[in-house]
Write a structure and sequence with these properties.
The chain is mostly beta strands. Helices cover 0% and strands 55% of the residues. Pfam families: DUF1349.
Length: 194
Amino acid sequence: MPESQNVPWSAGTWTHPPLSTESGQELIATAVEGSDAWRHTAYGFVHDTEHALLAPLAVGEAMEVSFHAPWTGEFDQAGVFVRIDDEHWMKAGLEYADGHLGLGAVVTAIRSDWSVGYVDDWLDTEVTVRVSRWADALIVRARAADGPWRLVRVAPFDGDAAASAGPFLAGPTRSGLAVRFSRWTRTPADTDLH
């Protein structure tokens, strides 16, 4: 495949439509209050109401999404979502929680987990999240502006299953979270971890 292909906003299908969208060169999407994605672990609930704009992602490909958001509401989140079905998916990106901006991922295989680290210095920057699909794994990297890529997660993922990926947002605790997505790109997957 070519080194990099922009994915048109119109090429994706929403898992759950946002409250509103405006698209041109950029996509501005506003989350529905209470939207989220989580299954069971620690909290005891299932949320399947995230806003993810998805297009097919094959083994050997990567998706990159760049975005900027006003991180003010508890659990405001945006990044990349990769989905096989309701019980097998991953979301990776930024989430504002407990007064800090966190970079992390939730990997779900029937039950969800969550890994996160603070990146408060990324608060007012454009962030890019990149997910590479290998035969048995998803490799997540992220960076602020044009800074260095940071490894976020290596997660098991079924290489034989059909999967889709793309930008996502959710506003679990408030109305009005508007995320500005500036880029959605498909590239060859990273070939190395280090």
